[in-house]
Task: structure prediction
Amino acid sequence: MELSGLTIRNFRNLASLDLELPSAGVVVLGDNGQGKTNLLEAMYYLVLFRSLRGAKDRELVRFGEEAFFVGGRANGGAFEVRAGYESAGRRKKISLDGNPVTRISDAVGKILAVSFAPSDRGIVAGPATGRRRYLDVLLSLAEPGYLARLTEMRSALKQRNAALRRGRGDEARAFDEPLASAGARVLEARTRWVERWSPRFGALTAALGERAEARMRYRTHRPPTADARSQFLDLLASHESRDLRRGMTTAGPHRDDLELSLEGRELRMYGSAGQQRTAAIALRLVEAETLRDSAGSPPIALYDDVFAELDEDRQARLLNLIHETLPGQAIVAAPRESEVPASMLDRPRWRVKGGRVAA
Ligand code: ATP
Ligand code: MG
Result:
C-alpha cells in the first residue's frame, strides 16, 4: 500500500499543499511546532476519517477557516480517497474515486497505515479506553463488518443509557437485544484477535530487547462461550438494578480491557517507562502485521519522532523488525536528520516550516 499523491487544504496549520510521494516514502524534517505531526495526521485522516490524536474534526479546521479537505491518490493512482469537513453543520463528506460514500465505514481502511508516536506509550500506561480504542481501530481496519457492529453497539448503548438515566428500566430493556447482538460480535472479534496475537506480542517485545515475558489478555466480565449473545443478554438482565441505580450500562464490551503484562504484572502499573515504550512499539508492530495479513500487503508506516528516544540497541532491533514487517512506504518525521536512523535517510527529504513543505 502506498500513498502517491496528497492534497491538503486548511487542515490544522497546513493551508494548501499538493504533494507527490515517492514509493519509498520521505523524511520530514522541521523545527518544533511547524506541522510535521499535522502532516502525518492529515495522511492518517484518509485511513480512519478521524484524527490520529483523537481530536475532534472541528479542531482540525485551520484557525479562522470554515472547512478542511484532504485527498489522497493511492497505489500510483489505482484509487482515490477524499475527505472534507465543514464546521457549519458539522458536515463530513467522504468519496471514493469521486463517488460519495453514504456510510463512512465503507471507506475506512481503503488506505491502510500504522502510526508510531511517542504518545503511544499512553496506550500501555493510560486508562482502558486507550487500549479499547487500539483494538477497535485495528479491528475496524482488518475485519470487514467490525466497525459497523461497533457503531451499532455504541448507538444501542447510548440509547439504553439515556433511558437508564431517566430511570426507565422498561425503555432501557428495549435496547438489550440490539446491544447484545452487536456487542457479542464485537466481543468475539476482540477475544479472537487477542488470543491469536498474544504470543506474537510476546515475541516482538522480546525481539525489541525486553527480557521479561510479555503477554496480552482480554479482560471481560465473562469470557464468551458458544453463544456470546445470549450470555450478554443474561449479563444485562442480571445487572439491571445496578444499571438503573447508576444510570448507565455497567457491564459489557464497552467496559473491557486489554491487559498487558510482563511476568504476570500489569505494565500499566508496574512497567518502567522504557518497558512501556517497548510494549507500545510491539503493539504497533502487531497492528502492522495484522493489517498486512488482512490486506495482503504491508500498510504505510508513519513514524513521528520515535527513534530518538530509543537506546542504540533497541533502535537497531526495531529497525530489523521494521525491515521485515513494514518494508513498504515510510514517512519518517523528526526535528533533525541526526534523529533519523541512517538506514532510513535514503529517501527524499521534505522540510516543513510554518505549515509549508519544501522538497
Ligand atoms: P514537534 O516537533 O514539536 O512535534 P510538529 O512539527 O510536529 O512539532 P505540529 O504538531 O504538526 O508540530 O504542528 C503544531 C502547530 O500547528 C502548532 O503551532 C499549532 O498551533 C498549530 N495548529 C494546531 N491546530 C491548528 C489549527 N486547527 N489551525 C491552525 N494551526 C493549528
Ligand atoms: Mg510533532
